[in-house]
């Protein structure tokens, strides 16, 4: 009997190393051709399954598949699309089963964050409730590092390395200029609810006198008075002040600062970026020159400065997903378990999808310093090993040589269209 | 007779490689100890000379001086401070002479952009007019690449490599997500008057279909209607649109767009960033999800992705400055001369300070595509060699290992203070 085919898809915001997970899945599946047939990739995540837009990955060369290890973004396209519960939209699941049956798909690998693990979990329930046997394995990915159970999430380490490196560089810049020019630099980083990336900025500091001087974490309610006092003290002591702020900074009322009632110098409500807003606030108070940066997608796509540890973990969870499936496991996600801080050692365990779906892991209180503006040694011990190693991509014509797949669709077998 | 001492200082906005020029000066001066005595570095540029805050670089080890090659920012501090003309503020020049005489300084090396070359030029005039013989050599540095005569300016190649690399990565991100999420990405880059950095973003494209799809150069008056039509066409064709815009984009009236009468969706004048403004404009017109990035100082300090060519040129102009001085040249700046595009070959010539001071070299018309939204092949031939080579810094604890000098001040010899 021919082995069942597999479906693999990427979901949610992308990262510098999600394609390394794809590479882990595809290479491991190819090694197990007796147990797994073709791997079809969903074009744009689960949408590719619903619309029967299945990419035949067997048409891609081994060299191209291997190059996924050093290519950022989602090679098959990603999506922000959440499946409804089965009782809310049964037709959606019937469609999935129709497509999977038409292409003889018996394995479902879904690569993403909390929402995506929810999708994987729902598909696994579908298998049971609607009588279509399918092996469902989630593969962790989120730059926000907010998945539960797993010690860290692939994608985060590289983003952390990027923000810590870049902030160290900007801090050298500001320290150079502060005598007559910019005295305050504000960096706005991603992480709407969890402060892991903001915390990682602290790795830029060699000692307690180094930048960044202040972190504004989403876990700590913003207090303007205490914050400005800290800025003033920092300016007095060092002549300049470097700040990292989470895009998800909240006021005492729990509302996002970026959308709150704070106004700029002209009395206008500021829209968008909390970084510019914090910068304006300091300028209004102290009159000094302030600059801000919002690297946005740069931070989650910066494959050129990816962390080797992160890359290895991204690949490992992709590989483990296939091995789990072959071993008969179901409705689980490979999770990273930390065995030791220094030297850093880790292995992979399984986490039930039911326990990872829709959960957000925030920074624990003992990772946040007493004044709320920094991190503790415990946090530093946790974060430090995750950014280790420089996994430089190859270069061509002086720029990183990233691959684009052919992404040829498998011939459709169904005549019905499905609107998403 | 003991040789005269030298003064070296860094001025204006910093770069990823200005310290490589410092390294070139210091190492070459040390090799010529019969012709040049100590090198005193001005703390915070010319301000260090005026306030007699002179750093004794002889106290720094050879290893630390060598590490300047891979350290961003200005190791001795920089400044934004322009000397008045001699007839406007004679006292300032008398003070310089007083300080230089007290420390037996006979060489003046000033490292910076157009304004800084103006300072070097004025100091050289001072030598003649006020009867204090001093050899003045300018050393080119500007990420904006707008110095005349020199084929390019050290600092630019690394910034160009950073923006092209990062924009390519962000473009992979947007292409991955555009089916259900972000369709437009706007990158705001530095370069208030000259579009060199905006143009360098085009290097991210492998072919005419690749991102960036649209450049908004400061040399081309912004036309909202034509721009939005181009965005629409790009969205239809590729499903997403990546744009690079200069911070100095101007309207048909010659005024900066960022400070113009354009309003956001709430009728408020937008302050600051033109990137967010362009993003809002597209969102208002097409309703699609738009994101923007303003990397700010990240782009000019990104030593982790510096171009080897740029690094070599930065070092070479520092070395040449000292060699020029020893050879008896005066009131000149080492300039890079291009001998060939491919293979790229260059050497160093001398440019009179009188001809480089206060000049700005804009993008020539034949570097800008017919529709104004891109660059020509001629521009590509010019830009391509400048970003060649990856000059990675050493890493320590997973982050670039940048040095901080001791920066010990030489004992003051004057009793009078001077206010700047």
Describe the fold and architecture.
Two copies of one chain form a homodimer. Chain A is of the alpha/beta class and 420 residues long. Chain A has 13 helices and 13 strands. The first copy, chain A, has a five-stranded mixed β-sheet, with helices on both faces. In chain A, strand 7 (214-216), helix 8 (224-238) and strand 8 form a beta-alpha-beta unit. In chain A, helix 1 (18-31) runs parallel beside helix 11. Chain A is elongated and about 75 Å long. The two termini of chain A are 34 Å apart. The relative contact order of chain A is 0.18. Residues 260-271 of chain A have low confidence and may be disordered. At the A-B interface, helix 6, strand 9, helix 10 and strand 13 of A face helix 6, strand 9, helix 10 and strand 13 of B.
Q: Characterize the overall form of chain A.
A: elongated
The quaternary structure here is homodimer
Helix count from the secondary structure assignment of chain A:
13
Largest interface: A-B, 72 and 73 residues
How would you state the average pLDDT of chain A, rounded? Answer: 94
Order of helices and strands of chain A: EHEHEHHEHEHEHEHEHEHHEEHHEE
* Strand order in the sheet with the most strands of chain A: 3-2-1-4-5
Strand fraction of chain A equals 15-25%
How can the largest sheet of chain A be summarized? 5 strands, mixed
SS elements, strand count of chain A: 13
Label the structural class of chain A: alpha/beta
Low-confidence segments of chain A: 260-271
Q: State the helical fraction of chain A.
A: 25-40%
Distance between the termini of chain A: 34 Å
What is the CA-based Rg of chain A, rounded? 23 Å
């Amino acid at each position: 009997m021919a082995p069942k085919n597999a479906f693999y898809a990427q979901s949610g915001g992308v990262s510098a190393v999600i394609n390394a997970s794809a590479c882990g899945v595809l290479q491991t599946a190819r090694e197990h051709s007796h147990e797994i047939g073709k791997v079809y990739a969903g074009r744009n995540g689960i949408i590719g399954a619903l619309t029967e837009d299945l990419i035949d990955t067997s048409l891609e060369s081994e060299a191209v598949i291997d190059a996924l290890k050093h290519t950022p973004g989602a090679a098959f396209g990603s999506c922000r699309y959440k499946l409804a519960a089965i009782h809310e939209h049964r037709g959606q699941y019937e469609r999935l089963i129709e497509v999977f049956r038409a292409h003889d798909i018996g394995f479902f690998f879904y690569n993403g964050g909390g929402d995506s693990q929810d999708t994987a979990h729902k598909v696994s329930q579908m298998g049971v409730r609607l009588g279509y046997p399918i092996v469902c394995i989630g593969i962790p990915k989120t730059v926000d590092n907010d998945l539960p159970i797993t010690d860290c999430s692939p994608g985060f380490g590289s983003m952390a390395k990027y923000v810590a490196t870049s902030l160290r560089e900007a801090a050298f810049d500001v320290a150079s200029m502060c005598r007559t020019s910019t005295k305050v630099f504000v960096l706005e980083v991603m992480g709407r609810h969890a402060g892991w990336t903001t915390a990682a900025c602290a790795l830029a500091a060699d000692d307690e006198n180094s930048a960044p001087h202040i972190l504004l974490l989403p876990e700590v309610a913003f207090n303007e008075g205490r914050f400005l006092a800290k800025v003033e003290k920092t300016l007095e002591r060092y002549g300049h002040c470097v700040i990292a702020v989470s895009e998800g900074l909240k006021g005492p009322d729990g509302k996002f600062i970026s959308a709150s009632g704070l106004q700029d110098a002209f009395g206008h409500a500021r829209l968008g970026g909390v970084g510019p807003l914090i910068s304006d606030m300091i300028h209004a108070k102290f009159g000094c020159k302030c600059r801000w940066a919002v690297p946005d997608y740069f931070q989650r796509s910066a494959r050129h400065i990816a962390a080797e540890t992160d890359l290895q973990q991204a690949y490992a969870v992709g590989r483990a997903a296939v091995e789990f499936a072959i071993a008969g496991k179901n409705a689980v996600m490979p999770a990273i378990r930390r065995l030791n801080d220094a030297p850093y050692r880790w292995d992979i365990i399984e986490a039930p999808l039911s326990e990872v779906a829709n959960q957000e892991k925030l920074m624990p209180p003992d990772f946040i310093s007493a004044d709320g503006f920094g991190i503790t040694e415990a946090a530093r011990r946790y974060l430090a090993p995750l950014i280790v190693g420089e996994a430089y991509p190859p270069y061509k014509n002086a720029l990183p040589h990233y691959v684009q797949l052919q992404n040829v669709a498998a011939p459709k077998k169904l005549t019905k269209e499905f609107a998403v």
